[in-house]
Amino acid sequence: MSAEVANGPAPPSLERLSLADVQKDAGPNGATTNGTTLNTNIQSPADTDAIQTPSSAVPGGGNQPHSASLYVGELDAAVTEAMLFELFSSIGQVASIRVCRDAVTRRSLGYAYVNYNNTADGERALEELNYTIIKGRPCRIMWSQRDPALRKTGQGNVFIKNLDTAIDNKALHDTFAAFGNILSCKVAQDEFGNSKGYGFVHYETGEAATNAIKHVNGMLLNEKKVFVGHHIPRKDRDSKFDEMKANFTNIYVKNIHPDTSDDEFRALFEKYGEITSASIAREETGKNRGFGFVNYVKHGDAANAVEELHDKDFRGQNLYVGRAQKKHEREEELRKQHEAARAEKVSKYQGVNLYVKNLEDDIDDDKLREIFSAAGTITSAKVMRDAGPSDRSDSPSSDKDKEDRREAKEGEDEKPEEDKEDGVKKENRPTKKPLGKSKGFGFVCFSNPDEATKAVTDFNQKMVRGKPLYVALAQRKDVRKNQLEASIQQRNQIRMQQAAAAAGMPQQVA
Question: Which pTM was predicted?
Answer without folding.
Answer: 0.45
